[in-house]
Recover the amino acids of this structure.
């Protein structure tokens, strides 16, 4: 058997309905504002690669141009160093 709904319970439901609608509108509005705020106006800077030349025997010796190691005379080999956008 179904329970009977008293007039007090009906009045409470009517009072909760505007509050529920206001909360739903607020949540939808906040979600829309959050999506608008996620747009970026500038593209994200990518990491750039810089060619450097180092000695295979003396890796602490690094220079920007090809050549030979001043310590042992070996030909320098190209290494690629990644510079992040914050290090520039």
């Amino acid at each position: 058997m179904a329970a009977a709904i008293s007039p007090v319970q009906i009045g409470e439901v009517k009072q909760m309905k505007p509050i529920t609608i206001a909360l739903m509108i607020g949540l939808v509005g906040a979600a829309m504002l959050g999506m608008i705020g996620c747009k970026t106006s500038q593209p994200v800077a990518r990491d750039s690669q810089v060619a450097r030349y180092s000695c295979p025997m003396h890796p602490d010796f690094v220079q920007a141009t090809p050549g030979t190691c001043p310590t042992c005379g070996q030909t320098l080999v190209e290494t690629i160093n990644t510079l992040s956008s914050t290090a520039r």
User: Anything to note?
Assistant: The longest strand covers residues 48-54. The two ends are 76 Å apart (CA to CA).
